[in-house]
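Quarterly update from the structural biology core.
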Amino acid sequence: MNDRQAGSRFATPLAVSGSTADAQALAERVAHAMYANDRASRALGMEIASVGPGRAEMTMIVRDDMLNGHAICHGGFIFLLADSAFAFACNSYNRNTVAQGCSIDYLAPAHGGDVLRAAAVERSRSGRTGVYDIEVRNQHGKTVALFRGKSYRIDGHVVDEA
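Predicted structure, tokenized:
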């Protein structure tokens, strides 16, 4: 998938001004590049609904092959969705950032055909570390899971600096 195809997975950006516009444009450019290389998220049908500095929203439809023996979505798939939103949020500043640790609490089951939305929000970013909270909801707005990710910045950039 090339950048143009990956770009079609994004919502229309909001109008912003000044350096906020630059930060938003960079976050979108980073997300395009990451998504183009993210075979796992794409293979699971995840799409980026929105992205910005320190935040990201991703969606995923629960397919039949994601259901466990109880006929509900396997928790690992919910974790993957939250983790992907976390990755796009913490890399939005174009500094290579990886997970240092994460935890998840499952609050309600997700069922086949549900549309899950993971919304990642930066809570803290200082030095090389950050803390991000991700809430996963279904299409009815019911919270399915709460995920907290701790990030660690490593060397390098996601995209070339302009």
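The mean pLDDT is 91.
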